[in-house]
Amino acid sequence: MAAKFLGEPTKVITGSHDRTLKIWDLRSRMCTETKFAGSSCNDLVTSDGAGSTIISGHFDKRIRFWDIRTEMSANHIMLQGKVTSLDLSRDSNYLLACVRDDTIQLIDLRMNTIVRSFSHESFKVGCDWSRAAFGPMGRLLAVGAADGAAYVWSTHSGKLEAVLKDHTSAVTAVSWHPQSGLLASVDRSKRAVVWGDL
Description:
Elements: E1 2-5, E2 11-15, E3 20-25, E4 30-36, E5 41-46, E6 53-58, E7 62-67, E8 73-78, E9 83-88, E10 94-99, E11 103-108, E12 113-118, E13 132-134, E14 140-144, E15 149-154, E16 160-165, E17 171-176, E18 183-187, E19 192-195
Antiparallel strand pairs: 1-2, 2-3, 3-4, 5-6, 6-7, 7-8, 9-10, 10-11, 11-12, 13-14, 14-15, 15-16, 17-18, 18-19
Organism: Euphydryas editha
Keywords: Repeat, WD repeat
InterPro entries: ATG16, WD40/YVTN_repeat-like_dom_sf, WD40_PAC1, WD40_repeat_CS, WD40_repeat_dom_sf, WD40_rpt
């Protein structure tokens, strides 16, 4: 379901439907370690440059925090629905979690607390793997919805900034251009749309 590099180009961590996180050595093409999460992992991020801290989002409504030097997760945050995706702010201080209770949660990782929740009466998460993303400067976030729209909120004010509608099926993922306000969205019908500068 998810894969990320672990601080160096030869190590990757994967999160799987089989309720495990696995660390892979790309040189030997072998799994070097398996962590048993106890729940299907829908997404994961690494929160430091060295790749020693892993954050994983799960089917059992938990976000788990891992130190790769230990066997068990260090702690967790319980949410109100299945976690469909995670995204880390550029400064690694904030975590975005898309949740099946039709909310996006903004978590301050310095305090491990939810600092803002984003929702709207017409916003419904479209699937168990819907992907939300921070904008390039962290001031906006975007996520696709079941109604075929991409929703864009201000992370600072919590205000819904835009509802971008051009899809005819659920939008499953969004991605921002790293330097501009361009946003790409894709839907279940395999259609991609690139939105102008936001």
